[in-house]
Write a structure and sequence with these properties.
The complex is a heterodimer of chains A (105) and B (117). Chain A has no helices and 9 strands. Chain A is mainly beta and 105 residues long. In chain A, strand 5 and strand 6 form a beta hairpin. Chain A is globular. The mean pLDDT of chain A is 96. Chain B is globular and about 40 Å long. The mean pLDDT of chain B is 96. In chain B, a hairpin with a 4-residue loop joins strand 9 and strand 10. Chain B is mainly β. The relative contact order of chain B is 0.32. The chains are: A mainly beta (105), B mainly beta (117). Chains A and B meet through strand 3, strand 7 and strand 8 of A and strand 5 and strand 10 of B.
């Protein structure tokens, strides 16, 4: 099972960034999103498609339908610059997307 | 405070073996499933393995099955990854992560494995 993400996304500060994750019938599975800043461990950003862990800013939101899960960052800030990974479960194993590098400039 | 601390990484020759450890604190270790995830330099996240609380369900990525084994000691709050027949392609930062309800909610800082002659 494969999850496909765009390698890179660029956005201007204050604008909305959208990162997609595509997989066969992904909408039938739960999708999670992780943010990894340079030199740091991944941090859970969105789980069960749309939920945010405590401490994650409201500007991060998620959706999942059909074959595509989407991470949306509203009012993107320079501190949001990082790599983002989608993740799903398939037959007891964990699948990660290839990652998307978000550049805020 | 939930903490996961990996250790055991280092430099190993091709064909060699290495055992990684992940020690947990701040929560009830023996009720959670754990995962190993690795990240080669400059590359993305790659799932390695998972083990449930009673060690009855163990899964591996296809490329690691047969070379890696995973185990845990609930009395020591510890998770292990035994790696053998290592190649340069196994060079990576290895993370342990705790599984929640369809999520990986806590990650360690990782331990670096370098396979080189």
């Amino acid at each position: 099972y494969d999850l496909t993400q765009p390698p890179s996304v660029s956005v201007s500060p204050g604008q909305t960034a959208t990162i997609t994750c595509s997989g066969d019938k992904l909408g039938d599975k739960y999708a999670s999103w992780y943010q990894q800043k340079a030199g740091q461990s991944p941090v859970l950003l969105i789980y069960q498609d749309t939920k945010r862990p405590s401490g994650i800013p409201e500007r991060f939101s998620g959706s999942n339908s059909g074959n595509t899960a989407t991470l949306t960052i509203s009012g993107t800030q320079t501190v949001d610059e990082a790599d983002f990974y989608c993740q799903a479960w398939d037959s007891g194993t964990v699948i990660f997307g290839g990652g998307t590098k978000l550049t805020v400039l | 405070e939930v903490q996961l601390v990996e250790s055991g990484g280092g430099l190993v020759k091709p064909g060699g073996s290495l055992r990684l450890s992940c020690t947990a604190s701040g929560f009830n270790f023996n009720t959670f499933t754990f995962h190993w995830v690795r990240q080669a330099p400059g590359r993305g996240l790659e799932w390695v393995s998972s083990i449930n609380p009673s060690s009855t369900y163990i899964y591996f990525a296809d490329s690691m099955r047969g070379r890696f084994t995973v185990s845990r000691d609930n009395a020591k709050n510890s998770l292990y990854l035994q790696m053998s027949s290592l190649t340069a392609e196994d060079t990576a930062l290895y993370f342990c992560a705790r599984e929640g309800d369809f999520l990986l909610d806590y990650w360690g800082q990782g331990t670096l494995v370098t396979v080189s002659s």
